[in-house]
Write a structure and sequence with these properties.
By secondary structure, the chain is of the alpha+beta class. It has helices at residues 13-22, 41-46, 65-75, 89-113, 127-138, 151-166, 174-184, 187-196; strands spanning 2-6, 26-30, 54-57, 60-63. It is globular. InterPro entries: Glutathione-S-Trfase_C-like, Glutathione-S-Trfase_C_sf, Glutathione_S-Trfase, Glutathione_S-Trfase_N, Thioredoxin-like_sf.
């Protein structure tokens, strides 16, 4: 049985959305970060970083939202949340799946802290570049891989929804609004939103 360790109103949202999209049976294990539950010795054995989400699946255990997306999509190919390893779309899928934690999240931190980082040393370039590149890609639509919804859309869609609509850190653009609307319209997104609200 898959167990998802999560906390309300946290980065757990993408993992909840993923599992709701998957149709797989899973158990949610509340790990309330507002009470410090993520620092318990039991939880630190699963994720020494003391962060949610984390997941166990039999003997497998892992953390980090994008890694959870990759693991579930690959371990359970019947979910159709990732192109097969021999599909040429796989390369773009992996690029965009990891674009969220490696580019969007650092860009948001840069915007939030107003930190000046030279684009030549920042792995993500600049916040402006990140959102310009994402804007250009989303204009192709409807999903990151065209007509195929994937776990990459969960990683990108969850991050973009928080950045644009929840925290209003990134100004809306037509491609962002249309993409977020498509994500929000998915029944699994709506179920995840209710769960994640606590």
């Amino acid at each position: 049985m898959i167990k998802l360790y999560w906390s309300p109103r946290s980065r757990s949202f993408s993992a909840i959305w993923l599992l709701e999209e998957s149709g797989l049976a899973y158990e949610r294990v509340l790990t309330d970060i507002s009470t410090g539950a993520q620092k318990s010795p039991e939880f630190l054995k699963i994720n020494p970083m003391g962060k949610v989400p984390a997941l166990t699946d039999g003997d497998a255990q892992l953390a980090e939202a994008a890694a959870i997306c990759a693991y579930v999509a690959d371990r359970y190919p019947e979910t159709k949340l990732a192109p097969a390893t021999n599909d040429p779309k796989r390369a773009r899928y992996l690029q965009w799946l990891f674009f969220s934690p490696s580019c969007i999240e650092p860009a948001l931190i840069q915007l939030f802290t107003k930190l000046e980082v030279p684009t030549s040393t920042a792995a993500w370039g600049s916040a402006a570049q990140v959102f310009d590149v994402l804007d250009a890609e989303l204009q192709k639509g409807p999903w990151i891989l065209g007509d195929q919804f994937s776990a990459a859309d969960i990683a990108i869609g969850a991050g973009l929804n928080f950045a644009v609509r929840v925290f209003k850190m990134v100004p809306p653009r037509p491609s962002f609004e249309a993409y977020i609307d498509r994500c929000v319209a998915r029944p699994a997104f709506q179920r995840a939103e209710k769960i994640a609200a606590g």
